[in-house]
Amino acid sequence: MQQQALMKFDPATGVAKPYPSHAAQWRKWHGEMTAWLFDPWTGRRRDAREVGSDVQGLFIIPPGDPVYAATLGHRHAGCGMLNMANAESK
Which of 22, 36, 59, 78 has the fewest Cβ atoms surrounding its Cβ within 10 A? Predict the structure, then answer.
């Protein structure tokens, strides 16, 4: 499973030290329809195209984390854009 690293920034506001700090817990606490406007591991504002195709930030990979393949049939598999900012910085 991806996104196990603690988030450093609130994905909706960009404010440091979000609560809760785990991505899955944050989604559950704040509701699944809250848009992730910021990368919660870098604080970088996400491009509107990224947000539009991946509102909940499910495809954001924390810097330094390995990339795992998604299983087919998952409701989000195959849709959305990759977070290219992290991929290009390597």
Answer: 78
